[in-house]
Each structure stands twice: as C-alpha cells, then as structure tokens.
Write a structure and sequence with these properties.
By secondary structure, this protein is mainly β. The protein has no helices and eleven strands. Strands 2, 4, 5, 6, 9, 10 and 11 form a seven-stranded mixed sheet that branches. A hairpin with a 6-residue loop joins strand 5 and strand 6. The protein starts with a strand and ends with a strand. The relative contact order is 0.33.
Length: 113
C-alpha cells in the first residue's frame, strides 16, 4: 500500500520548536521529490517546502516558510520538517505529499500559550 504517515505534531508554545516526520511505504521513496504542505481551517493547502530525490536541493516559498528546514533519509524512507521559533499564526495540519501519487493524513500543529 502506497502511503505516507506523518507524526511529530502537537501543541507548542510560541517560540518553541517542532520537527515533523513522515515515513513512506509501498513505493521507492528515493525515486521522487517530495513536499510538505500545510493547511489551515477554511484555507487552501499551501506548499511549505520541497526537496529533490537525492536531498541535494530544497525549495521554500517566501517568508515565513523560510524559517523551516526540510530534509530526508532515503535509507529510512523518511522525510522531516524542522520548524524552529514557531509563531501563533502557524497552527494547521501539515502533510507529506508527492503529487499524483500519495498524500498522508497529516499531523496537526498548534502554537498557543
């Protein structure tokens, strides 16, 4: 079964940090570039970060996403999103996505004091 399973979300205080993880199964993870998206309630899903198949290049949309760091481990079939210095306007669900192949169910991040 082709799938992504995300984890690592939760409630964090402003200024805190989280690292999200995503484990792939059912396909050759290293064959694909992959993405982290996020979606707030009532809003469209938006791209947070992209990483190439080998992990040698990354793309981030304009600020504030530049605070985040995407990485991957093709041996473990995992991808990560490091999110330092979280601010209150970031609460939403984060997804691992390979377009037209697979999207995980997401992990929710809530930043609140």
């Amino acid at each position: 079964q082709v799938q992504f399973v995300e984890s690592g979300g939760g409630l964090v205080q402003p200024g805190g940090s989280l690292t999200l993880s995503c484990v792939a199964s059912g396909f050759t993870f290293s064959d694909y570039a992959m993405n982290w998206y996020r979606q707030a309630p009532g809003k469209e899903r938006e791209l947070v970060a992209n990483i190439t198949r080998a992990g040698d290049n990354t793309i981030y949309p304009a600020s504030p996403h530049g605070r985040f760091t995407i990485s991957r481990d093709n041996v473990k079939n995992m991808a990560y999103l490091s999110m330092p210095n979280l601010i209150p306007e970031d609460p939403q669900v984060f997804y691992c996505v390979i377009p037209q192949l697979v999207r995980g169910r997401g992990t929710q991040v809530t930043v609140s004091s």
